[in-house]
Amino acid sequence: MKVGFVGLGSMGLPMAQRIRAEGHDLTLYARRAASLEPFAGTDVTIAATPAEMDPGLDAVGICVFDADGVQEIVFGPHGLVHTLRPGAVVLVHSTVSPTQIREISARAAEHGLRVLDAPVSGGAPRALDGKLTIMIGGDTEAVAAARELLSTLSDHVVHLGPVGAGSHAKLINNTLFAAQIALTDAAMAAGGSLGIDPEGLAAILTTSSSACVASGVRLRAGSLAAIAATPAGPTLAKDVTLMAGALDDATGDAPGGVPGHELIDVARRFVAAMQEAGGAR
User: Fold this and answer.
1) What is the CATH number of the domain that holds 46?
2) Residues near 258 by beta carbon (within 8 Å), at least 6 away in sequence
3) What angle do CA 166, 275, 246 make, to 5 degrees?
4) Residues 123, 80, 136, CA angle at the centre, nearest 5°?
5) Which residues contact 265 (CB under 8 A, 6 or more apart)?
6) CA-to-CA distance for 244 and 223, rounded, in angstroms?
7) 8 A C-beta contact, residue 243 and residue 172
8) 64 plus 90 within the same structural domain
9) What is the mean pLDDT of residues 109-131?
10) What is the model's pLDDT at position 255?
11) How far apart are CA 175 and CA 267, in angstroms?
12) Computed from CA positions of residues 73, 85, 142, 126, in that sequence, does the dihedral angle turn out positive or negative?
């Protein structure tokens, strides 16, 4: 396929490298020249702006931090809508709110572009190996049109429904992850209150029935503050906040309480730690 890609951060870079390694015709755009250095001397085409990408691209992947970044790439003064051919598929791998991705999709459709809500999970090593989890929301025909590219990136593509469904799933996943980190922190605090050796307790919690990816992250980091200082901290805090808003939008004034808010309440402990560390975004 003829593929464009924008956003060469910790996830986007290995995804773009995977696309090239699998033989697709790849065009890249990045705001920072340094982001393009891994592709120096290769057959990858570099565009000066999104609008200067090949108009005949079959699909463009976008993996930037937030919805504002996606909108700038798609609709800005030098955005994709000015030149990309009608019928092309735009895959938004960024984690944004369901409302935001629906608005982006509707606006892009006015220019003949098909948007897939396509957030990812798995980390850089799995991206390089084509083993990401990709959560898809969007039109079935658009998914079929992008199938070859999706298969390059992932052996676990799940089509969840219309645009917005992928973002709902990603926000639930990341909120649960943050809540698990916060609960592990609480477990360590309980151990401290009972006089248990923290290193010994950490060794138990990483090998027993409560062990999970999130608990391992907290136990290796040593504290919530240490996680807050990593690039993952602000991203998780942002996603918990987006999830809280999505849940409020979906349930409104539902009688008898709002299902799912127990999860948000726990996850907000993580957000509070981010705020205390001055890293929340």
Assistant:
1) 3.40.50.720
2) 247, 248, 251
3) 25
4) 40
5) none
6) 24
7) yes
8) yes
9) 96
10) 45
11) 6
12) negative
- Write down the residue that tokens 């645009």 correspond to: 163
User: In terms of Cα–Cα distance, which of 60, 17, 62, 64 is closest to 36?
Assistant: 17
**Is residue 127 predicted with pLDDT exceeding 60?**
yes
| Residues paired with 147 in a beta bridge | none
CA distance 263 to 256: 16
| Cα 3 to Cα 20: distance, rounded to the nearest angstrom | 9
213 shares its domain with 118: no
How many helices (H) and strands (E) in the chain?
Answer: 12, 9
Strands (E), 133-264: 133-137, 156-161
Q: How far is 215 from 221, CA to CA, in rounded Å?
A: 10
Q: Is the pLDDT confidence value at 258 over 70? A: no
| Number of other CB atoms surrounding residue 254 within 10 Å | 9
**Distance (Å, whole) CA 260 – CA 94:** 23
Active site residues: 170
Looking at the structure of the chain, the number of domains it has is: 2
Tokens of 57: 């691209």
Residues 149 and 27 in one domain: yes
pLDDT at residue 187 is higher than 70: yes
Note whether 126 and 132 are within 8 A (CB). Answer: yes
Domain that holds residue 241: 168-276
Same domain, 26 and 124: yes
- Boundary-marking domain end, from 104, 135, 163: 163
- pLDDT at position 259 is 72
